[in-house]
Design brief:
5 helices, Jelly Rolls, nine-stranded mixed β-sheet
Length: about 725
């Protein structure tokens, strides 16, 4: 069934009604898109949402503005029971009809819906008990999602409530449905006179990384370039008979298409994917078929700037039938791309250029996309509220991929304080130089009962005040060791490294005993770092540690701890080269036993280290691939951010520890600087303790590039996570 066009009068009435209480609309029990596809992966949280309701005693905007929430962008946050008028939604009492509309700024494919039920102790019986779900493409005609009444669990007046169960499950899967408006129509509550909710979180659809699946992209909108939302129609599956199929048919409803005089579009695939083919459905409005694109150039890019592969293609003219087959298919050889540019060269004689749909089909190879769940997990608005730097280890000593995900994190400069959930401004905060957290059972618990690691001023290093910046750590027996970079508050940025030490803690009953701190100071030996007097040469270790031991789960253990770092040499032709040292695990506290890889092999002079690859970052990772089904089984993968502060996250491979790393390639291009003013990103690394055989978790840091940004937008300053997967 096709959507009906909205007249100018009904459109005006629709907009006016949104400003007031609700949307008079037709509701139908049949589906516009009958064949959907379940979504296992959690897509990105949708932020550009407005609300309206049948009536409102407490503002409907409270359910989507994060008020009362402990964090943002994820699903594992809690909603407070305090200040219900300012943080929750409640209808007027004794209304005949009760509903809440969520209106997006554009029509997109929808994935998981999470609902936090009403959490006001005084009116807990106003919590929604059952509801029906409707959706609309235009805000005028609504369709039932599944012709069902859904049950929502009560929060029972908990002080801090998690999401409520929907039909006994944690979320309602919207299965790739394309819509602009979602309506929750309340049917029953728990005996009260009103209907209330605390928060609603809606996540975009994301198909699983699998050969043959269709990608759910968006337009490449940045701070400098913005496309009208109508162009989302050619990539949002609107008008298609199926969500995740190369055999889908296209409708002839113009509301599901796009045409204009624009001759170029750039599409953001929202990740780096291998492409096997692209399906083009030409413009299919019966009386405007001449607007269909005839000749186009399609080009591909990893970074959004350099488009290396181009194809010229003729798109067959559509026929205007209601169930139109694909017009033209472009077969590809599993090329990887994160951005696709379409240049329209000609059409079939019309005054504009139009398309109905473009579908991108995954091939075989690697794919890298955002990890919404872990990224959201580190959003926190009370206490620990953001940090720089992140390294993780398992305290049981096994650091291999796939063992379990229990991880002990160390962070460097950390905000502690409060964040306003609505405007994201910080208040009552302090900044400590480091912090720690335990990640167990998909929950993170920040350590608060410790005195952070204060560095002792050493005049032999600097007369300025100092602090420790934490590098990578390792577990040997019942000890946790962490690299501690000695930073002096001098220079332009007040951040100058003057040395490096090693700090040890006891592990007791699976936890760190911070009272057992012992420092191993490296002031005279220059074994953990080296900085020449003229500052032309600096060698810093602690950037990445690989434990090639049986206890750590290595495939071919030799008993050594390999400590990777970087070499900055102003007189060299390379830029920031990767270097490596090693020491037997049982001798890690004896700096005289450390060896360094040079042109002549392993020796004891740190200054003779040789670069294994250049253009690396200050923090990175070296991980052993232990999946026997992977083509890289037994190899070591280096994960880093090219040139430290760049947009490209790269991986490179070595056959053995001490070999040079080759096959360097960009697996993901970071877009944060294109979409948020005055920020920088850096120090990407892989986390084997969070990874599985076929899903490698990578993080990178986001920070302000102009003073004040972190204080006025608390969501900036924390790590982001990605998933690097093999698409099979």
């Amino acid at each position: 069934m096709n959507l009906k066009k909205i007249s100018k009068l009904s459109t005006l009435f629709f907009l006016v009604s949104l400003v007031s209480c609700g949307t008079p609309a037709k509701e139908k029990t049949d589906n516009l898109f009958p064949k959907l596809c379940s979504s296992i992966s959690l897509g990105e949280m949708i932020e550009d949402i407005t609300t309206s309701a049948s009536s409102a005693l407490y503002n409907a905007e409270n359910v989507i503005n994060c008020s009362g929430m402990s964090g943002n962008y994820g699903k594992n946050h809690t909603h407070s029971s305090l200040s219900p008028r300012e943080t929750m939604f409640l209808t007027q009492p004794n209304q005949k009809e009760n509903y809440l509309d969520l209106t997006l700024n554009k029509s997109i494919q929808l994935g998981h819906l999470y609902i936090y039920n009403y959490n006001n102790f005084a009116k807990i019986d106003c919590s929604v008990k059952t509801f029906e779900l409707y959706y609309s493409y235009d805000g005028s005609t609504f369709y039932s999602f599944d012709n069902k009444t859904h049950e929502l669990s009560s929060n029972e007046g908990k002080t801090d409530c998690t999401y409520s169960l929907i039909d006994g499950k944690e979320y309602l899967d919207l299965e790739g449905l394309t819509a602009k408006v979602i309506r929750l129509k309340f049917k029953e509550n728990f005996g009260g006179k009103n209907y209330g909710l605390s928060e609603v979180r809606l996540f975009a659809y994301r198909p699983d990384v699998k050969t043959g699946n269709a990608i759910s992209p968006t337009l490449y909108n940045t701070l400098k370039v913005s496309y009208p939302s109508i162009y989302e129609n050619i990539i949002n599956n609107s008008g298609m008979s199926e969500v995740n199929s190369a055999d889908a048919k296209m409708s002839n409803d113009p509301l599901t298409m796009a045409k204009s005089k624009r001759t170029e579009l750039v599409i953001d695939l929202k990740g780096n994917y291998p492409l096997s083919k692209i399906l083009f459905y030409n413009y299919n409005e019966p009386n405007q078929l001449d607007c269909g694109v005839k000749d186009l150039t399609i080009s591909f890019s990893i970074d959004g700037k350099n488009y290396d592969i181009k194809n010229n293609l003729i798109i067959n003219k559509a026929s205007g039938t209601d169930k139109e087959d694909v017009s033209t298919t472009l077969e590809l050889d599993n090329i990887n791309a994160q951005f696709v540019k379409l240049n329209f060269n000609s059409n079939y004689g019309g005054s504009e250029y139009g398309l109905s749909e473009v579908k991108f089909i995954m091939g075989t190879g690697y794919a890298c996309e955002r990890n919404t769940e872990l990224t959201g997990m580190l959003s926190n608005y009370n206490g620990w509220s953001g940090a720089d730097g992140i390294f993780g280890v398992r305290l049981n000593g096994n650091q291999s991929i796939g063992s379990d995900h229990n991880t002990f994190f160390n962070f460097s400069d950390t905000y502690f304080g409060d964040v306003n959930p609505i405007n994201k401004h910080r208040s009552n905060f302090v900044i400590n130089n480091n912090s720690f957290a335990y990640f167990n059972d998909n929950q993170i618990n920040y350590v608060t009962d410790y005195e952070y690691l204060k560095a002792q001023k050493m005049e032999s290093r600097s007369l300025a005040d100092c602090f420790y910046w934490l590098g990578d750590g390792t577990v040997i027996g019942n000890y946790y060791y962490v690299s501690a970079l000695y930073i002096a508050k001098e220079g332009v940025l007040g951040f100058t490294q003057k040395g490096e030490d090693l700090i040890r803690f006891d592990i007791v009953d699976g936890k760190i005993d911070f009272s057992t701190k012992k420092e191993f100071i490296d002031t005279n030996t220059n074994k953990l770092s080296y900085i020449s007097k003229d500052s032309n040469l600096s060698i810093i270790f602690g950037s990445a540690i690989f434990e090639n031991t049986k206890e750590a789960g290595a495939l071919n253990p030799d008993g050594y701890i390999y400590n990777f770092g970087y070499r900055d040499d102003k007189n060299a032709s390379y830029s920031r080269g990767l270097v490596v040292s090693r020491v037997k695990a049982e001798e890690i506290e004896d700096f005289s036993k450390y060896e360094y890889l040079s042109d002549s092999g392993w020796q004891d002079d740190i200054t003779k280290t040789i670069p294994l690859i250049d253009r690396v970052s200050c923090e990175m990772s070296v991980t052993e691939v232990n999946n026997p089904n992977s083509p890289y089984y037994g190899k070591f993968v280096l994960t880093y951010e090219k040139d430290t502060i760049g947009n490209e996250i790269c991986v490179a491979y070595a056959d053995r520890l001490g070999d040079k790393f080759n096959e360097s390639r960009t697996v993901f291009t970071i877009l944060d600087r294109d979409r948020i003013n005055n920020v920088s990103n850096y120090n990407a690394k892989m986390h084997p303790t969070l990874s599985t055989d076929n899903c490698y978790v990578i993080s990178y840091n986001l920070n302000e590039s102009q003073s004040g940004v972190n204080n006025f937008n608390a969501d900036v300053y924390r790590p982001r996570f990605l998933n690097l997967k093999e698409c099979i």
